[in-house]
Design goal:
Layout (H helix, E strand, L loop, with lengths): L1 E4 L12 E5 L12 E7 L4 E12 L9 E6 L2 E6 L1 E3 L1 H7 L11 E7 L10 E10 L13 E5 L2 E5 L5 E2 L6 E2 L3 E3 L6 E4 L12 E7 L4 E7 L16 E5 L4 E5 L9 E2 L4 E7 L10 E8 L10 E4 L10 E6 L3 E3 L8 E3 L2 E6 L5 E2 L4 E3 L13 E3 L11 E2 L1 E3 L4 E3 L5 E3 L5 E3 L9 E3 L28 E4 L4 E5 L4 E4 L1 H4 L8 E4 L7 H6 L4 H7 L4 E10 L20 E5 L21 H8 L4 H6 L1
Parallel strand pairs: 1-10, 14-16
Antiparallel strand pairs: 2-9, 3-8, 4-7, 4-9, 5-6, 5-8, 10-11, 12-13, 15-22, 16-21, 17-20, 17-22, 18-19, 18-21, 23-24, 24-27, 25-29, 26-27, 27-28, 30-32, 31-34, 33-36, 34-35, 37-38, 37-40, 38-39, 39-42, 40-41, 41-42
């Protein structure tokens, strides 16, 4: 930056530019208990200074008695008392008594009542001085600075103009080259050092059937930082993408196919460096279509370039399909369509290939099977997991399920069907205290035989075998196949059920007072087909095939007092079978 000195005559008529300030009674001596305040402010572009030429004030520890205090806008400058010579004042006090540009100085003097001898006081000379803003490195003029009384002004070299901030010198390097199909764009000042603080914009625009081709020629030299960051930068922007920023001494790859008939070349610089810049030659060629028509698809045929009029078949990738609501002769199937390259470099028509959606898994409503995440994502490759509603069930297949490419949920091992929740059978919350022994037995506790059901109207029993079915003796339900039987579970010694059947207790009150009690109703009764039905006890000679199944009207809510028993497998020990059927023969025992 170069400094100029320009003379302007400011008009400062509102206040004097110099004068005196002194203590009351100076030089004869100031009185006791006096207070005196003084303030002056410098006009714009000036500073105010104060020069003490005499100081004689009662001395005291830290000037607690009599004192003259001088401060600026920034804070206190001095607290003075005692006696100082002019030389002492000039060397240690006066240099600091200066305001900031356009700032103020304040002086305050007060005395107390304890003066035993006369002190003459103080006298000072104030003056306003012009500030040399051009000497200040913070004035921000980028080329020339001219100082005048009360201010400064920035100037520029020929070929530059002063920007709107009145400090930055820049060049006019924004050019609209619309319509030009061949030409050259260079940095301002090429091949010499480019201009500082430049914000250049070169606009190119041609027919929409053409694309601009840019080629870097000659030296490429744009200021770069030590770590590779661009201090000055070159960018090329089209409506669909941005190239750059570029800097350093390695030019971008040429030729650069913009793929667009419109481009803007942006070049920005700071105030440092002596780099030479760039030269770009631009021309046009016919637009080509991109190698991708729509995402998640592939083209047939595969060509290095697709030009105006080229036809391709677009096939969605595995796991993707077209929106079935789309219609048109170009759609060949739910995964394939035909598209043509247009003169403007775009494909038409274009249909999106979207991920196949398996939809929400068909989990039976009100069943024990549940999704771990009740609101899962359901598109291609998404995964889900299942769980059972409580510990009284277990999954028959505990593995992840994935949405496959055909839109079906499939397990990790390849099963196409959803898992099932099977009831956990033959296990109680507490260990059963007595097993397979009746003689000399003891009373069962609640929850020790959780599969036991009581059929009140038939004075019989049944065993729960899962959350929908129970097994009983055929003679217990013989003749009641078309009836709706009421059963009770989750009880011992008829607790709760007796009140419903004999005392008129409402079921909801009985359930409230007897935790675990369940009231169940039959929907269907199936008696073994080889059982002899319709015989009275006195005429029955055989109880072969004396077994029946009872289906419940609704799913049984399992809990610690209501759980299914395990049915014996074909190869299991007969003792299991005997244990399981003890409850089914209650009526038979009653008859004897």
């Amino acid at each position: 930056m170069i400094r100029l000195f320009v003379l302007f005559l400011p008009l400062v008529a509102s206040q004097s530019i110099s004068g005196w300030v002194e203590s009351p009674g100076y030089p004869r001596g100031y009185p006791d208990e006096v207070k005196f305040d003084w303030k002056r402010c410098a006009p714009s572009g000036h500073t105010l200074s104060l020069t003490l030429i005499h100081l004689d004030i009662e001395d005291s520890d830290e000037c607690q008695n009599d004192v003259v205090e001088i401060s600026s806008d920034e804070g206190k400058l001095a607290s003075l008392c005692g006696r100082k010579s002019y030389e002492e004042l000039q060397s240690s006090v006066n240099p600091s008594l200066r305001s900031s540009p356009s700032g103020c100085l304040k002086l305050s003097f007060h005395s107390d009542y304890s003066n035993t001898q006369r002190h003459s006081g103080f006298r000072a000379f104030y003056t306003m001085q012009d500030v040399d803003e051009c000497a200040d490195s913070e004035n921000r003029c980028t080329q020339f600075c001219g100082n005048y009384i009360g201010g400064y002004r920035c100037f520029c070299r020929p070929g530059y103009y002063l920007d709107t901030d009145d400090h930055t010198c820049t060049v006019n390097c924004s050019v609209n080259l619309s319509g030009s199909t061949l030409g050259t764009v260079s940095s301002p000042g090429w091949p010499d050092s480019y201009a500082e603080y430049a914000q250049c914009s070169y606009t190119l625009s041609v027919d929409d059937g053409l694309q601009l081709v840019l080629e870097f020629t000659g030296n490429f030299d744009i200021q770069e930082g030590e770590e590779g960051d661009c201090i000055d930068s070159l960018k090329i922007i089209t409506p669909s993408r941005e190239f750059g920023p570029f800097c350093g001494q390695e030019p971008p790859p040429s030729p650069l196919l913009t793929g667009s008939h419109q481009a803007t070349i942006l070049f920005s610089t700071d105030g440092t460096g002596t780099n030479t810049g760039f030269t770009i030659t631009y021309k046009t060629t016919a637009k080509t279509c991109p190698s991708v028509v729509t995402s998640n698809s592939n083209l047939t045929p595969q060509l290095p370039q697709y030009r105006y009029g080229d036809k391709v078949n677009v096939m969605c990738n595995l796991g993707y399909a077209l929106d079935t609501s789309q219609v048109g002769n170009e759609i060949l199937s739910h995964k394939e369509f035909v598209s043509w390259c247009q003169r403007t470099g775009v494909w038409s028509p274009v249909f999106p290939c979207e991920p196949v959606d398996c939809g929400h898994p068909d989990v039976p409503e009100g069943g024990a099977l549940q999704l771990v995440n009740p609101n899962p994502s359901t598109t291609y490759k998404d995964e889900i997991r299942f769980q059972c509603e409580s510990k009284y069930y277990r999954l028959d297949r505990d593995e992840k399920y994935f949405c496959d490419a055909e839109g079906n949920w499939r397990s990790q091992s390849g099963h196409p069907t959803l898992p099932k929740c099977e009831t956990v059978c033959g296990k109680t919350e507490n260990e059963i205290s007595s097993f397979s022994r009746i003689l000399g037995g003891q009373e069962a506790k609640l929850g020790e035989i959780p599969w036991q059901l009581w059929l009140y109207s038939r004075t019989g029993g049944a065993s729960l075998i899962n959350d929908h079915w129970a097994v009983t003796a055929a003679h217990v339900v013989d003749g009641y196949e078309e009836s709706t039987l009421r059963m009770y579970g989750g009880l011992v010694q008829q607790r709760g059920a007796y009140g419903i059947e004999h005392l008129g207790v409402k079921p909801e009150d009985a359930l409230k007072n007897n935790p675990g009690l369940a009231v169940l109703f039959s929907e269907k009764i199936i008696i073994h087909p080889q059982y002899q039905k319709g015989l009275g006890d006195e005429n029955r000679l055989s109880y072969d095939n004396d077994i029946a199944l009872i289906k419940m009207k609704s799913r049984v809510n399992l809990g610690p007092y209501l759980l299914p028993i395990c049915l014996p497998e074909k190869k299991e020990d007969k003792s299991m079978e005997v244990s399981a059927l003890i409850l089914l023969r209650i009526r038979t025992k009653t008859r004897k």
